[in-house]
Amino acid sequence: MAEVLSRTSDLGGVRKRFSSLQEGFAFFDAPGGSQVPDEVGDAIARALREASANLGAGYATSLRVKEILETAEAKAARFLGCEPHEVIFGPNMTSLDFMLSRTAGREFLPGDEILVSSLDHDGGVAPWLELAHDKDLVVKHIELGPDTTLDLDDLENQLSPRTRVVAFAWASNAVGTIVDAQRVCELAHQAGALAWIDAVHYAAHEPIDVRKVGADVLICSPYKFCGPHLGLAFGAAEVLETWRPYKARPAPTSPLSRRFETGTLPYELLAGFNATIDYLDSIGGFDTIVPYERELGERFLDAISDAVTIYGLPSMAGRVPTFLVNVEGVPAASVAAHLATQQIGVWAHDTWYSLDLYKRLGYEQDAVRIGFIHYNTTEEVDRLVAALESARTA
After folding, report:
1. Reduced to 3 states, what is the DSSP secondary structure of residue 310?
2. 234-244, pLDDT tens digit by residue?
3. What's the whole-model pTM score?
4. Average pLDDT over all residues of the chain
5. Is-contact 88 246, C-beta < 8 A?
């Protein structure tokens, strides 16, 4: 299956598994949420029909729920490169980040410091700002280079004995820039701080190995990689064991990670998550996805004219296939509206929720975000380029 997405006929087979891709509309909005294969929706519906129960009973539907949850923990552990008892599920990344940051911060003292990245989505910043407000902590931003790469020298200079957490986005949801996560984690640990990764955007495009990179906490969202709306976190066992969870008292505290899951989990969405991992496996996984998406990105970059400004890195080196652009002389909202008439889906926005990034990029109001993912085709990329160019005369 390693070459499955590089052959047009096989890509067509992949796309047939998505009802949403059958009408000719080209979705380039995956950074805001990907399309979902039918088998994922079928798994969710099946769970609602056949496994509407809760854990702990001895009858069939409860046993099915138990199987769904344990399967989801095992599949998530394989996806992240950890153990099942280090997997935490929640409603979304932002809710998990608020909950886990609050849990981690129980023992933080006034004047303790949190470092966040200037590339970050605010879902990875606001939890620390709120915790800092309540506990009189200090939140500092790590600077960026002119090309939007994280300034590792600035990170190293800002680390201190008071640094408790270094929180950063592995890949920018706005401009696609990838951070050297392993180096950031190393620097955090040298200062005695936790390495806390927002992998929401990265997880759709590159494989994750939390052990290799050295993460203490990593959070992502399956709805960015063809799954249901759900939050997924890794917490290193040696870290989780030191935390006191916010938890209803009779609720299970074993396995370890379930201490940090509040209330009843959405078991039907976990069934959908299981089908998502099976789908990704069936198309060859990231061994297939990475080179194919890189090909799409290079095709786009090679084809656009100088009338299209790309913010951030100018090539596919050091990025995922997400591009923030503007078309010369045309407001971003007008570009997005024009593309919609051409059956192409993109968004125009101002901040892209990266509040410390967008001010640095130089556009006046909005910019258009374009995100490629593995179900996009080279023909769609060509359509997109033509539509961007024609926006100038529309």
Report:
1. strand
2. 999 999 999 99
3. 0.96
4. 95
5. no
